[in-house]
Amino acid sequence: xxxxxxxAGKNDNDVSRLDEAARAGWLYYVAGNTQDEIARKLGxxxxxxxxxxxxxxxxxxxxxxxxxxIARCMELAQKLRERFPLQSCEVVPSDPATPASIxxxxxxxxxxxxRHLKSQEPKIIAFGTGRALRASIxxxxxxxxxxxxxxxxxxxxxxxxxxxxxxxxIRMADRVNARHxxxxxxxxxxxxxxxxxxxxxxxxxxxxxxxxxxxxxFVGVGNMGETAPLFVDGFVSRDEMAALTAAGAIGxxxxxxxxxxxxxxEGLTNDLVASAPLARSPDKPIIAIAAGEAKVDAMLGAxxxxxxxxxxxxxxxxxxxxxx
Amino acid sequence: xxxxxxxAGKNDNDVSRLDEAARAGWLYYVAGNTQDEIARKLGxxxxxxxxxxxxxxxxxxxxxxxxxxIARCMELAQKLRERFPLQSCEVVPSDPATPASIxxxxxxxxxxxxRHLKSQEPKIIAFGTGRALRASIxxxxxxxxxxxxxxxxxxxxxxxxxxxxxxxxIRMADRVNARHxxxxxxxxxxxxxxxxxxxxxxxxxxxxxxxxxxxxxFVGVGNMGETAPLFVDGFVSRDEMAALTAAGAIGxxxxxxxxxxxxxxEGLTNDLVASAPLARSPDKPIIAIAAGEAKVDAMLGAxxxxxxxxxxxxxxxxxxxxxx
DNA sequence: TAATTTTGCGGGCAAATACTCACAAAACGC
DNA sequence: GCGTTTTGTGAGTATTTGCCCGCAAAATTA
Lengths: 324, 324
Prior knowledge:
Two copies of one chain form a homodimer.
Chain A: H1 14-30, H2 35-42, H3 46-58, E1 62-66, H4 71-83, E2 88-92, H5 105-117, E3 124-127, H6 131-138, E4 143-157, H7 168-175, E5 176-186, H8 192-200, H9 202-212, E6 216-219, E7 222-223, H10 229-232, H11 238-246, E8 251-253, E9 256-258, E10 286-289, H12 296-304, E11 310-314, H13 315-323
Parallel strand pairs in A: 2-11, 3-4, 3-6, 4-5, 6-10, 10-11
Antiparallel strand pairs in A: 7-8, 8-9
The structure holds a DNA duplex.
């Protein structure tokens, strides 16, 4: 809070460069200038102007939103809402070339998150983990909302103590100024007893209470098998995965493994998972963010078992969900 | 809800064309495809793909938002807040080539409107008229918010009964599904007596009551003289304008003409203006949307007189306001 | 301080995009 | 049903943009 010399504009650090980038991006995307014009107006070379514009893009200063109800997507969302017990459902177009891509889903999810974050009343917003969720966070604008609490549903430590890459809360803290509560816990405890001990720690207990009262929850959905996030990221071994599959496991949300009707698998990893218990709230939104052929079965289980009551996915995945 | 052959994509009416445009725009801006790839994916020629993308832009399906606090603008906004009695103030960059342009202001204003429209509690939102306001409405996404009421602060009829081009409420009704109340009134009555009669009509009376209770108000600011909107659009004659200027008039908001300290001019057009009375609320936001060298004096008057307590303008105008 | 690495810049060029034009199909009016 | 207008299409072309490269300034290290 000391004096700052923002007038000078000569303290050529990252900030003033991003500032220029924002200006260039503004002139390009909002005012519709050509990069040549921008170069002249900002007094730099055309190439530099180009660099500034592309910097504005890569730094996600420019956010593009598409605002048209694409009939096919609306229709699919409608059908999904009819078929499954869903409060809300959003379907975004797929890129036919990379139908499993989370491009687009991230934007849609971010826009939904933003809606909640913009609310004036204090809210507790809970987050799972995963690639899609993490990509969504990256799409959030910087916001100031001290009234909210952002809480993690699960730890991000490997059993050896190293941190997983997909912890969304930390990322989120960079962008959104709200109270945030990362879960200082491994994904799996080494024994039921250890899990109990961990959960009874004062701060962890607090966070679990917060999570239970979450006003809105965003989670990813993990599949089983060779491509399972749990396996790929090294949280469960090949043998454990095989045992889970043999026990009828079909998917996983915040590392809680469930079967084809969304019923939790007894024993195995579920005895050790340290994540907050799954809350099946009928009224508070619990929104799954997921897409891809591989996740269809897992998503079906979560929907049937009402583990989630909201869904953000893409066209192709929506079609596959309805085809079953 | 009958069977539809949406896969075929051959029911070629306007809707499906915009749909295609949205899809193309999505693939281009969100998924980052080249127009060539889009052409192949949608099965059209590259030129058609280009047309679809540019259609998506001209139809305002793609909305670009810039999300970086440009230091200079923040600083100007801060200073304006310090100098004038403003609750809120936003300054957007100017395009150095066309500093009077409302490009950018419209986007910022739209985003502010959207913020209010997204609120869950029912709100009454009041609107004046003007080019900037109208351009802002065009930047709004389509929204569904039946909980709100959108009310016009003034009529849009010329004295001969023809409609002015800048009625924002009608435009708004296209985009935002809320209850809307256009004011079925001319801008000026022909006598004080007629004004009284008009205002006592049941529907008009209702709307005036709504306007009085507005939770948030957006207005434009008009200057006096040869370029005055009131004169250019033919609501007042050259002679009347001269009389106003002679009486010390400096600006106008919803056709209420005021002097350099924001005090209403006695008599003249103010005896006849049929707009809702100006409410000087200390707590409910009344936001002026205006920019341009010509409007600086008018804006200063409105600020001094606390006719507005919020401001959205651009860099250049902000500088001029502070220079006085 | 000198050597080395890093970073940013402008020139040039290939790719991508926007625009113009002539033409054809659909919509419209009579 | 026939001419007229409107709307959309593809080809060609000018403009704009993205990217690679060598160079020089700045930062880093020894």
